[in-house]
Amino acid sequence: MHATGQAVPPSRGMAAGLGRRLGGLPPLIPFLARRVLRGIFVLFILSIVAFGLVRMLPGTPADILAGPYSDAATRARIVEDLGLDLPLTEQYLVWLGNMFQGDFGFSVFNGLPVLELIMQRLPNTLELALAATIVSILWGVPAGAGAALGQGRAFDRIARGGAFLGLATPVFVFGIGLILLVSTILPSWPSVGFVPLTDDVWRNLQGLLLPALALGLPLGATLCRFMRTSMIEVYEQDYLRTALATGASRLQATLRHGLRNASGPVVTVAGLQMAGLVGNAILIENVFAIPGIGQLTVTSLLQKDYSVTQACILLLGLVYVVMNLVVDVVHSLIDPRVGESR
């Protein structure tokens, strides 16, 4: 309350709380420390799972390298050269120890360092994830807010129907559908293939459009539903009713107070969506022939390239851990109670 007895607007109070939170970073340090330790533990468990799963698959790198007509002696020599004759526990400890030293191993098929292979493809995946995130936010957030603003009207029904369609349709189905549609309507448009941004900006954007839509449209459906639900809850709060009673239009009250106060759950979902984009990229990159981490993961898995597959799985896990940490920090800055309760 002000000295005059007037209530402080929620948006102003939240901004003040955010300023105090930024000014008092030390309380965030224990919260961040707990989250980082949790993330390290998750990555450790994931390393065990990744190591074990790839070895549970039928076949070994020695089988692929030796070929179907090799003799037992040749296979045994390849197994020994690759260190696959050691006990599994020893293999895991050697791999883990090398990673701590920055050595992720070499691909058994082309001899290139695993880290080099990943760094060659990582920019393409990050570019795709960023473009898909922009697509999902550009349609999901305004559509959800507009649906809540006109609850029960035609736009609300259209937005909910579009969101339901996006949630019910797998991303690879969107990808294949877009390829068929664009190939029919615009045969000259590059529907499959990818040109790096450093080679040709325009062709890069052309090749990026369809996969970004295939990833962003379904994920934006989740943002749309969360934004609509969050905004409807905000409309039921007393402060927004007070704003409407003082003469502000519903749109003005939404822009001044509603969007900011409804942003907490949406920020959380958007951050988790960005982490999930990298996982969904495994499907989309193979549909659109994009040389990214997803395509590298599938290729190395089929080739039984243990070192590359394990590194790709850990990278995907690292993305989830980092994005969860970023989401927690941003959410705790928006709502200080989050950091205090964890």
Could you give me the name of the CATH homologous superfamily of the domain at 122-340?
MetI-like
CATH topology of the domain at 122-340: MetI-like fold
Task: Give the N-to-C terminal Cα separation.
Answer: 29 Å
Using the alpha-carbon principal axes, give the shape.
Answer: globular
Count of runs of 4 or more consecutive helical residues:
15
CATH arch. level architecture of the domain at 122-340: Orthogonal Bundle
Our Rg estimate from Cα atoms comes to: 25 Å
Order of helices and strands: HHHHHHHHHHHHHHH
CATH class of the domain at 122-340: Mainly Alpha
The secondary structure category is mainly alpha
- The percentage helix is over 70%
- What is the tally of beta strands? 0
How much strand? under 5%
Residue stretches low in confidence (pLDDT < 50, at least 5 long) are 1-26
Report the mean per-residue pLDDT as an integer.
79
How does the major sheet shape up?
none
